[in-house]
Specification:
Helix content of chain B: 25-40%
Order of helices and strands of chain B: EEHEEEHHHH
Largest sheet of chain B: 5 strands, mixed
CATH superfamily of the largest domain in chain A: Aldehyde oxidase/xanthine dehydrogenase, molybdopterin binding domain
CATH architecture of the largest domain in chain B: Roll
Strand content of chain A: 25-35%
CATH superfamily of the largest domain in chain B: Beta-grasp domain
CATH topology of the largest domain in chain A: Aldehyde Oxidoreductase, domain 4
CATH class of the largest domain in chain A: Alpha Beta
Number of strands of chain A: 30
Structural class of chain A: alpha+beta
Bound molecules: FE2/S2 (inorganic) cluster
Radius of gyration of chain B: 16 Å
CATH architecture of the largest domain in chain A: 2-Layer Sandwich
Strand order of the largest sheet of chain A: 3-7-1-14-11-12-13
CATH topology of the largest domain in chain B: Ubiquitin-like (UB roll)
Strand order of the largest sheet of chain B: 2-1-5-3-4
Number of strands of chain B: 5
Number of domains of chain A: 3
Structural class of chain B: alpha+beta
Helix content of chain A: 25-40%
Oligomer: heterodimer
Shape of chain B: globular
Shape of chain A: globular
Largest interface: A-B, 65 and 64 residues
Distance between the termini of chain A: 69 Å
Largest sheet of chain A: 7 strands, mixed
């Protein structure tokens, strides 16, 4: 039996492939006889499609298909994870800049490009809805065709509305009431790998290649759209080159599949980075928040109206909005709460999941309110948080899952690491913020573990390894349970034709859900080994450990037992495991969270009064992870989240012109952090109390580092300069202006 | 560009990872395309295609170059090193370079999409400055975007490789 594989920082499984360039990403997939696809798009967000003339395009040498809505089934096939509202190609009207009205498949990229430019689309540009204010305007045009929607909201741009809360806010009063509006803009995922999709008609079905987080959902989407049995749709999902929520759901895979079927040839669509920006983005929020505080800083009530700005189609953004605002009181005890939430449609790219799933947007408001209350009441900003922060077992949403971690411990750790309360040089300030995210509520993961004759093992799991290290941690779990090192474990993922069903790779759920399924599959293997030992040796006294079997005082290795048990005929032992979270229809979110992801972030910031530029001197992130199965991986995830949080805090936002076009489309104009934006000191610290629902007490991790970066940095700016900013990002220009108004 | 039928073919002679190669390229094709599709060296990646992300970084005569900005027809006579050329002893059972190993040792790799370009930029940095200070590494890698990592571990990996090189 080898040493424990849990809680050790083994090297990344697949790391060697990644430093040598041998890792095959979806863009590196080669198919013979390939056709190249180009999209035909318009120069504005919203336009009525009057006519499409494909004659000239079809004449280009090498063109094999020019597909328009007229070539697709009528009514237009639509898809989406919550509402089937997104058409395969725009029909009648475009609804966001970049939405294709046609697609070309040709023998070469040049021919496809040339033909796409020759598709003549006669359009009439129409006014677009681009902001929360406009979406709520009763005179604004409707983004979606009311015929496609049900209920009274169909005649508005409000896709859905929720009312959460408890107690009686109207009856509640407080000596200190803080009331403000906070905005969080649209930002883009900017995975360094742009989207690439391939499809090929195979035998009597179709195979689709996409670096997608949820291959099994894509499989059923394609099956439904094409009228195929699920078994005839195979999704091959190479490890994504970064995803962050942006690769969860179907985009142009259905279109490419239709083209493959029509042409009888494999088709490939590679989006440019600009097109990737137009594909999906983070849900923008406007939060109006009224919070009542007692003189000692105790929260008395929370009264909130939140508007989340979706794009033209619901995607999973609609769930982002409900799930995040359900925790609109953060990790605090609040006696009375009222939360009114609207999900609004607009003529912008679909809003989808993005690391944190709405939590950074919520925390921006909640935590900024805490800072303002502390300043008004003359209370220390750390103290006001500790006064209200839920202790283990206390509810943060009345009647729902109580606090499941020692969050106070995490806050103390962060405060100590940042040197809270120590004197600061002029021009510097500190900030601290906390947040929780509701993890996965429901869903199922299945795993198969095959123990081979030599004792090595193959794990088959439907999780996507998009950089978070799922392969590594699943290999560690299997290795630990079977007494191996990770070198002797092969993890097979990314192919619905091979690995069993997994609902999705999101919500930091994989370690908890798939990790449990893998551990269970290993235990299934061990149960079978015990049976085998009993049969082979006629013994009743059999004990199966991690890698060894004790048979009446003798210790055998797994391979020895397999040789004896299979008696000369080779074979393998196949274990199956699963973890299901069943739905609770009475719960507003369809189920209580399996755990909370808690983070405390503290920063020290230096403000350049002349330029408004911010220097992050020190950045501390503390995550409550239950148990870090691979500490280096967990810390690295958290560091990455911290830097991503600095991105939307300091520099990132998509800017639209009046035609609904993204102005800063591409790496030149849309800046994300580089090595030069790295804080002078960056620390990721963990709280490990083995109190999570996953294997060995693990909770999910990897999102928390970006939850509370914005309020922490903004509060540091306020401490350093007095300027209060409630709009993101905190660009040098915005800070500079705020400093001028502050006088 | 995926190496399908071309209307104009120009022969270009280059040295890639130590071997002399002749490739037929089109007039619009980039060096990145030629490497990826004509020579099957898909380690170099494309992200922005406009010289802003560094995913396509290769070494030309030992210096870092964004291969998405170089036309393949202009590469005649160049000595090019791609990420595939860093390992010694060939791709199967080859030995990682100190720098590659340092990336793994420090946990600097997450999804890995930026890593080939990042490693090549770091290699170019070390070629010019074998013992950089941390701020020089931060400065030297500022043209290479990584969306996964906190960058800290990447900087640490370069410093570790430089240290081992001492
Ligand atoms: S792809 Fe060459 S710099 Fe981005
Ligand atoms: S490791 Fe994913 S982009 Fe750098």
């Amino acid at each position: 039996m080898s040493a424990p594989q849990i809680g050790v920082s083994t090297r990344r499984v697949g790391g060697r492939e990644r430093v040598t360039g041998r890792q095959r990403f979806v863009g590196d997939v080669r198919l013979d006889n390939l056709l190249h696809v180009r999209l035909v798009t318009l120069d504005c967000a919203r336009a009525r499609i009057v006519a499409i003339d494909t004659t000239d395009a079809e004449r280009v040498a090498g063109v094999r298909a020019v597909l328009t809505a007229a070539d697709l089934p009528d009514p237009m096939p639509r898809f989406g994870p919550v509402y089937a509202d997104r058409p395969v190609l725009a029909v009648g009207e475009t609804r966001f800049h970049g939405e294709p009205v046609a697609a070309v498949a040709a023998e070469t990229e040049e021919a496809a490009e040339e033909a796409a430019a020759l598709v003549r689309v006669t359009v009439e540009e129409l006014p677009a809805v681009l902001t929360v204010e406009r979406a709520l305007d009763p005179d604004a045009p409707l983004v979606q065709d009311p015929c496609l929607r049900k209920g009274p909201l169909a005649q508005t741009n409000t896709l859905r509305e929720w009312h959460f809360g408890w107690g009686d806010v109207d009856a509640a009063s407080a000596p200190c009431v803080v009331e403000n509006t906070y905005t969080f803009p649209m930002v883009t995922h900017f995975a360094i790998e742009p989207h690439v999709f391939l499809a090929s008609a195979d035998h009597d079905g179709v195979t689709v290649w996409s670096a997608i987080q949820h291959p099994y959902l894509l499989q059923s989407t394609i099956a439904t759209l094409l009228g195929l049995p699920i078994a005839k749709v195979r999704v091959i999902a190479p490890d994504p080159g970064g995803a962050f929520g942006g690769k969860q759901h179907a985009k142009f895979e259905p279109l490419v599949a239709f083209l493959a079927l029509r042409t009888g040839r494999p088709c490939r669509l590679a989006l440019t980075l600009a097109q990737t920006f137009q594909a999906v983005r983070r849900t923008a929020y406007r939060v109006r928040m009224r919070t009542g505080f007692a003189a000692d800083g105790t929260i008395r009530f929370q009264d909130v109206v939140t508007d989340g700005l979706l794009g033209a189609y619901a995607d999973i953004g609609v769930r982002v909005i409900s799930k995040s605002t359900y925790l609109m009181c953060g990790p605090y005890r609040v006696p009375d709460a009222r939360v009114h939430v609207r999900a609004l449609l607009s003529h912008t790219p679909p809003a989808t999941a993005f690391r944190g799933f709405g939590t950074p947007q919520v925390a921006w408001a909640v935590e900024s309110q805490m800072d303002e209350a502390a300043r008004r009441l003359g209370i220390d900003r750390l103290a006001i948080r500790l006064r209200n922060l839920a202790h283990r077992g206390e509810e943060v949403v009345r009647g729902d899952k109580p606090a499941d971690g020692d969050w106070h411990e995490a806050v103390h750790k962060a405060a100590e690491a940042i040197g809270w309360g120590n004197p600061l040089p002029p021009g510097r300030g500190r900030g601290i913020g906390v947040a929780i995210k509701s993890s996965a509520t429901t869903g199922a993961s299945y795993a198969i573990v095959r123990l081979h004759m030599d004792g090595s093992a193959t794990v088959m799991a439907g999780t996507s390894d998009m950089g978070q290290g799922a392969r590594t941690v699943l290999a560690q779990i299997a290795a630990n349970e079977l007494g191996l090192t990770t070198d002797a474990v092969q993890v097979v993922m990314g192919d619905t034709g091979v690995a069993p069903f997994d609902l999705q790779t999101s919500a930091s759920r994989s370690t908890v859900f798939m990790g449990t399924a893998v551990a269970e599959a290993c235990r299934d293997v061990k149960r079978q080994l015990a049976g085998m030992a009993t049969r082979a040796f006629g013994a009743d006294d059999v004990g199966v450990g991690n890698g060894t079997v004790a048979v009446e005082g003798r210790t055998l290795s797994f391979p020895d037992l397999l040789v004896a048990g299979f008696a000369g005929v080779r074979g393998e032992v196949i274990g199956v495991g699963s973890r299901r979270g069943e739905a609770d229809t009475a719960h507003p979110l369809g189920g209580a969270p399996s755990f909370y992801e808690f983070n405390c972030t503290a920063v020290e910031v230096e403000v350049d009064r002349e330029t408004g530029e911010l220097l992050i001197v020190k950045h501390v992130s503390v995550a409550d992870v239950g148990k870090a199965l691979n500490p280096a991986h967990v810390e690295a995830q958290d560091e990455g989240a911290a830097i991503m949080g600095l991105g939307h805090t300091l520099m990132e936002h998509l800017i639209f012109d009046e035609h609904g076009r993204i102005v800063n489309l591409g790496a030149l104009d849309y800046r994300i952090p580089t090595t030069k934006d790295l804080p002078l000191e960056l620390h990721s610290l963990l709280v490990e109390n083995e109190d999570g629902p996953g294997p060995y007490g693990a909770k999910g991790a990897g999102e928390g580092g970006l939850f509370a970066v914005s309020p922490a940095v903004a509060a540091a700016v306020t401490e350093a300069t007095g300027a209060v900013i409630r709009e993101l990002p905190l660009t040098a220009e915005r800070v500079w202006r705020a400093l001028r108004t502050e006088g | 560009m995926t190496g399908a039928t071309r209307r104009d073919g120009y022969p270009v002679r280059v040295t890639v990872n130590g071997a002399a190669r002749t490739v037929e390229v089109s007039s619009t094709e980039t060096l990145l395309d030629a490497l990826r599709w004509n020579l099957d060296l898909t380690g170099s990646k494309e992200c922005c295609a406009e010289g802003e992300c560094g995913a396509c970084t290769v070494l030309v005569d030992g210096r870092a170059v964004n291969s998405c900005l170089v036309l393949a027809v202009e590469s005649d006579g160049l000595d090019i090193t791609t990420v595939e050329g860093l390992e010694t002893g060939g791709p199967a059972g080859g030995r990682l370079s100190r720098l590659q190993d340092a990336f793994l040792e420090k946990g600097a790799v997450q999804c890995g999409f930026c890593i080939p370009g990042m490693v090549m930029a770091a290699q170019a940095l070390l070629n010019e400055n074998p013992h950089p200070r941390p701020d020089e590494v931060r400065e030297g890698l500022a043209g290479n975007l990584c969306r996964c990592a906190g960058y800290q571990r990447i900087v640490d990996a370069v410093l570790l490789a430089a240290e081992e090189d001492a």
